Amino acid sequence: MEFTTSKVKRYLIALLALLGLFTLVAADAWSKKVYIWQDSDGQTHFSDSPPATEENGGKVEERTLKEPPPREETAAAIAKGPIEHAVQCTFRLKNKKGGASGFFINDKGLAVTAKHVVQDATYSMEAELPGETRKHRVRILKKSQHHDLALLQVAIDRPTPYLEIRDPHTLTPGEELWAIGNPLLAFRETVTKGNFSRIFPEADWKKEVKMRLPPFKFRGDQVQFSTPVIPGNSGGPVVDYEGRVVGVVSFGFPNTPINFAAPSSYIRKEFESYLK
User: Average pLDDT in the 162-169 region?
Assistant: First the structure.
């Protein structure tokens, strides 16, 4: 869902999920443990310390987040949890025609966005990273021929935080998902929460929805999810509770909980030679 100036009037929406302040940490802290658990109401929680026994229902997952060494001018280098880590891996992608979102997939500035975001883009594209005022030049390395995916190289002189890739076929219906992006390009680092519905087969566009081809004419299966997204979210990651990317926001149906993402498994398939 790419944002352009002409679309602003069509999407007047109140965005409720704004990111809190980052935590200032010591410069030698390159990794951090976080604890993940669900309460009696089924709500997922994140903490940097283990919860009390009566809070967690008897099951607590422990995970270590690995971060690049922080810089003195960056106030928030170490994330407090998997979702905040995913926020730090996501950036605003802009040029004169508009833009949307992208995210890092390795520590060398390699990144992914949706193909339709950069379809007619030039090398005037720039990435704006969380907590920074400096803009970084962006180069398009490859556009997928079949899927709504594009591979980018962000010009940056330090290691970048990045997202691990999870195969979306391992998701279960109802599993919680978070979408991270820059809605309308005005609301940076926005986090929204929803659920996984299913892997939507390519054949069902014609069979069930009675459409000859899916929107944008991209091929392949799609991750169907209910997490709210609007223009500007395109190209941003959809992540699970551990902050692993399962899809790249592609498109949705306005005013409905029906949205779609290019499966993260296609990232490995399409850009394998760059990931070695």
Answer: 96
What length is written for the chain?
A: 276
Question: For 23-48, what is each residue's pLDDT tens digit?
Answer: 222 222 334 566 565 666 555 555 55
Instruction: Indicate the fold that domain 168-268 takes in CATH.
Output: Thrombin, subunit H (2.40.10)
Q: How far apart are CA 64 and CA 62, in angstroms?
A: 7
First-to-final CA distance of the chain:
30
Cβ atoms of residues 237 and 201 within 8 Å: no
Q: For residue range 119-131, list pLDDT tens digits in order.
A: 877 667 899 999 8
| CA atoms of 200 and 171, how far apart (whole Å) | 13
Distance from CA of residue 237 to its chain's centroid? 2
Strands 90-95 and 150-154: unpaired
Cβ-count burial of 71 within 10 angstroms (0-12 exposed, 13-18 middle, 19+ buried)?
exposed
The pTM for the full model equals 0.72
Q: Are strands 222-225 and 60-66 parallel, antiparallel or unpaired?
A: unpaired
Q: Tell me the domain boundaries of the chain.
A: 168-268
Q: Tokens for 155?
A: 């010009």
Strand ranges of the sheet holding 44-47, from the earlier edge strand across to the other edge: 44-47, 31-38, 60-66
Structure tokens that stand for 194 in this block: 């929803």
Q: Which tokens sit at 171?
A: 């998701």
Tell the burial category of 233 from Cβ atoms under 10 Å away from its Cβ (0-12, 13-18, 19+): buried
Specify the DSSP element, H or E, that contains 206: helix 203-207
